[in-house]
Amino acid sequence: MQNFFNKLKIFFRSQSWHKFTSGFNIFYDVTKRLVFVLILILFFGSIFVGGIGLGYFVSVTMDTTPPPKEELSAEITNLELVSNIYYDNDEPISAVRTDLVREKTSIDQISEFVITGLVDTEDSHFYEHHGVVPKAVLRALIQEATGFGGQVTGGSTLTQQLVKQQILTNEVTFERKANEILLSYYLEDFFSKDEIIESYLNVSSFGRNSNGQNIAGIEAAANGVFGVSAKDLSLPQAAFLVGLPQNPYVYTPYEQYGEVKKDQSAGIERMQTVLYRMYREGDLTHTEYEEAKNYDITKDFIGPTSVATSPQSYLYQAAERETLDILVDLKLKEDGVSRNNINENTDLSDYYYNQAAQELSTAGYKVKTTINKKIYDSMQSATQNTIGNLGPTYSDTFKDETSGEEVTEDAPLQAGSVLLENKTGKVLGFVAGRDFETSQLDHAFSTRRSPGSTIKPLLVYGPAISENLIYPANLLADTKIEYKQQDGTTWEPSNFGGTISNKFVTVRHALEESLNNPTIKLYLEMLDKGISAEPYLKNMGINSIGSNEYANPSLAVGGTETGPTNAEQTSAFSTFGNNGKHTDYYMIESITNRNGEVIYQHESTTKDVFDEATNYIVADMLRDVITNGTASGLPSMLNFSSDNLIGKTGTSEEFRDIWFIGSTPNITLSSWIGYDNTHETRIVSQYDGYGFPSTRNLIYWSALANSLNNVDNSLLTSGSFTQPSSVYTDKVYKSTGTAGGTVSLPNNRTYRIGGQQVEDLFKQNHPPIQPTYHLLPGSTDEDLTKFWSALTKERDRQNKAKKREEERQNNNSNNNNNTNDNDNDDSNDNDDNPDENANSDNDSSEDADETSDN
């Protein structure tokens, strides 16, 4: 061991140790100096940054005049600022209803546990500061000036929280923060600490009560959650309620309709945080803390109860719903959360929508809609004057699930309609139902129904023309379909009335007469060629149809699991009235806060769906629906000219939905009638004594349109569909819908196209096609065999007839020659009548439409 220490002494005295210590001393000295310089930089930098922040604070507040005490008092104690909804001309529709329950109380009627817990948890220096905590303000200033630390924060005091709740908005900006600080100082000057706490506890949100209503104020919370007054709250109860305002809809023990949440862990953990801080601040003994922490608070929650709600109107309901969607979207954007997140998370969705509902009911907003009062009222009147003549009211008998008793309920025919301005997407008016007091179901914006044949131009004919698969003069087979479905069954569709013509019809005729089988065959051709209609429908605002449904040919005639709403279908159809462009529909024009600041202004989104040539051709075919097709009875019902009107009828399976959608270059108007089928399935039957279903709906549409025309005679008559230069008129052969030419047939024969020609519209980039054997889109081999066999048989018949005619004419010529000879031989022979052969059979042969090379 002695030898070891001797070696250490020698090392420490050696040159190596001397070099090591010298190097370390230099390193230490440099490091110490660098740290000192860094501290100086940070110190003076903080002063500099703080100075900048302080200067900015002064700049944004120097012109601010302290509000009078009375005004501040009104602001911080105001329990509710009413929001209002208006028509497009600023005429009021309604004040925003609220299910918010508030009960005001005084501080001497509030448990000391509540006051102590609130201060210890939210603002432990409450009785020491003058509205703000300076170090927190400095931290906020540095964050704002340097950008470090993310958003401007700052450990708001109770006074600041009260200012933010009652006076300012929730936006996170330095200017708002500066005003918050300034107003907090004013508040502390004007009011005592007890007055500030009292106001805070009276205005703060505490989530929901046992019937699902929103509650604000400690008294409403104590009654609504525990069934006691605020002054009688126990320590655990007080701690639970004190924890709620930080995140009321996460910590509340109740669901939206008053059911007790299955998972109470979030609220209980928050309660224990409150208890711990009370213990940490010395306001609870260890025994009190442990007893309260281990207390089962869930046994104190009162059970769900029910509350009566007063009905409003379809208009109020729709406007409120869209406003809430907008407020949620604004909050999602602020929080960096996507709409998909809340669509997939019910709890998260409830949280945001409850926040939005509370904001709307208490923030004093002015909500301006696009609804024209005269138009809206005229649509309601037309509906009430007509609906009673369109179908019977049935009686449904069913067992009430709650009472178990047998109940009888009326099931009246319902109606829905939406009027849109094509270019802007504005909803000018709508009909959501027959009677709001008896049924709040919204048939304009909420219910999803089969669109029936109104989907045909959107899904099939429009995309097929756009993709140059067809033009109006193309032929389609109206023949039998046997489609094997995935479940092994065979689908055999037919046209209206179960008929199939077994003929070959033009595209134009198939659409104007709404023939199902030719449409389905065309859609099958689209699927076979990989032409997807899904992007077209999505660009027209129809997103409810699942991607898997587009492979199902029944979709071509309206067969869908989740059909569009009336508004969605009307909006999609408005594309044809807007030159192929689609603008999303909307009802809320703007939202203005109580200070007159616009927090939301609608901005329209327009998408190009169809090129102008495609759109004009489809619109032209839809005009034929009204002049020659399934809606040909409509013009005689109108009190205005239908020259610029296009439209489409629609009937879903078993007459459950009856539609007509009409469009002009200015507006699009829909009409739908049907039954809700809540308990029993009802249909609009042609045997119920009210006439043909489609005709009834045309009567309803015409009643709406005539009433609108009386309000504004330019609404449905202005504008015109102008043929673009990309569309021209050409001729095709009627028998094939093609240009002329020769076709090779499977039996080694050829067929030369000829005969009668017809005119129709064509796109410049899609002229009449040359004839081929497979010229019928979606046709089967059987269809083609039948088609060409019919043409060749007709040609053969005409050729034979022509040959017989030629032979007869030859015979007549020979007979005439013989007669002339006889006359020359015996001019006095008068036994033969010279006109006898002239009056003999003189069947004129038809010009053959087709000829062949044999």
UniProtKB/TrEMBL annotation:
Catalysis performed (reactions): [GlcNAc-(1->4)-Mur2Ac(oyl-L-Ala-gamma-D-Glu-L-Lys-D-Ala-D-Ala)](n)-di-trans,octa-cis-undecaprenyl diphosphate + beta-D-GlcNAc-(1->4)-Mur2Ac(oyl-L-Ala-gamma-D-Glu-L-Lys-D-Ala-D-Ala)-di-trans,octa-cis-undecaprenyl diphosphate = [GlcNAc-(1->4)-Mur2Ac(oyl-L-Ala-gamma-D-Glu-L-Lys-D-Ala-D-Ala)](n+1)-di-trans,octa-cis-undecaprenyl diphosphate + di-trans,octa-cis-undecaprenyl diphosphate + H(+); Preferential cleavage: (Ac)2-L-Lys-D-Ala-|-D-Ala. Also transpeptidation of peptidyl-alanyl moieties that are N-acyl substituents of D-alanine
Organism of derivation: Bavariicoccus seileri
Domain called Glycosyl transferase family: residue spans: 92-272
Designated name of the protein: Penicillin-binding protein
Keywords per UniProt: Carboxypeptidase, Cell membrane, Cell shape, Cell wall biogenesis/degradation, Glycosyltransferase, Hydrolase, Membrane, Multifunctional enzyme, Peptidoglycan synthesis, Protease, Transferase, Transmembrane, Transmembrane helix
Gene Ontology annotations of biological process type: cell wall organization; peptidoglycan biosynthetic process; proteolysis; regulation of cell shape
PANTHER family for this protein: BINDING PROTEIN TRANSPEPTIDASE, PUTATIVE-RELATED, PENICILLIN-BINDING PROTEIN 2A
Entry-linked InterPro entries: Beta-lactam/transpept-like, Glyco_trans_51, Glycosyltr_51/Transpeptidase, Lysozyme-like_dom_sf, PBP_transglycosylase, PCN-bd_Tpept
Ranges annotated as biased composition (Low complexity): 810-821
